[in-house]
Design goal:
The structure is a single chain. This protein has one helix and six strands; from the N terminus they run ββββββα. The protein is α+β, with helices and mostly antiparallel strands. It has a single domain, classed as 2-Layer Sandwich (Arylsulfatase, C-terminal domain). The strands form two sheets. A four-stranded antiparallel sheet has the order 1-2-3-4. Strands 5-6 form a two-stranded antiparallel ribbon. The radius of gyration is 14 Å and the shape is globular. The mean pLDDT is 94.
């Protein structure tokens, strides 16, 4: 399973851990909308689309079912984000 389309929308605001929203397509046949890039305590990570359940806790709507796939998606998405940040620094 490969990410065949990837869009990253930066949304950085002072004091917010949210860095960007992410939409991506897998194998040109399944679109995932509303993932997020979040600044964690030690590193950036990708949070999959989620909603609040009846108990007020966030539940992922779509998610990889194994570590290898999660890491693969996260590596591709974060590489694109890093590329965008570097381009903005070079332009500024």
């Amino acid at each position: 399973m490969e990410i065949t389309k990837l869009e990253v929308f930066r949304r950085e605001r002072e004091g917010s851990r949210l860095k960007a929203f992410v939409d991506f397509t897998l194998d040109d046949c399944l679109a995932i909308r509303g993932a997020k890039i979040i600044q964690g305590n030690e590193r950036l990570f990708v949070s999959m689309p989620s909603k609040m359940n009846k108990e007020g806790k966030e539940e992922n709507m779509v998610f990889p079912t194994n570590k290898e796939t999660r890491e693969k998606f996260e590596n591709v998405i974060l590489a694109k984000y890093d590329e965008m940040v570097k381009e903005e620094v070079n332009e500024g």
